Amino acid sequence: MIFIDGSNFYFKMKSLEIKNLSKFKYRELCEYIAGERLIATAGYYVGVVRAKFSDEKGQKMRLAQRKLFNHLHNQQVVVHNGYLMKNDGVYHEKGVDVKIATDLLVGAYENLYDDAIVISSDTDLLPAMQKVKELGKNVEYVGFGHQPALALQTAATRSRLLLIEELEKFVSRE
């Protein structure tokens, strides 16, 4: 099973100046990372934009996110919704890390996977990753070469850092 922390992925890609993620080849990236392993499911975890009709910026974000969700669906990547809350004009994601951690644990307890591949640099996932390993499952941390999370590398059964050259292969030129 592959667990993609959508917001974390977005900001790491943005820091690499890789744009237009609504056309990124997410499924191909998952297959590349999985290698010869069969992918039971690939999940993209993200806070969903909810905006008032009068909120122009929020409506723009909502439309862009809908395009992304359709794009992910077409690539057989399951979207798992968290929440985006607006506080003092700034959006904050809520519930996404907990959803990833819960799905990691449920998948391990219910024997839904042998290997969990976590594409995130969020150390809030450490306790869940450690428990998954205690349950006899492998946890692979996939991070970004320019900003690795040492704690996740240490906690994982296996780790891999993606380089910009690898990621650019999955940027659609359309």
TrEMBL record:
Cross-referenced Pfam families:
NYN
Listed GO MF terms: RNA nuclease activity
Gene3D superfamilies (alphabetical):
5'-nuclease
Instruction: Please report the stretch or stretches of sequence annotated as the NYN domain.
Output: 1-158
Q: InterPro entries attached here?
A: LabA, NYN
PANTHER family listed in its UniProt record: SLR0650 PROTEIN, SLR0755 PROTEIN
Put simply, this protein is called NYN domain-containing protein
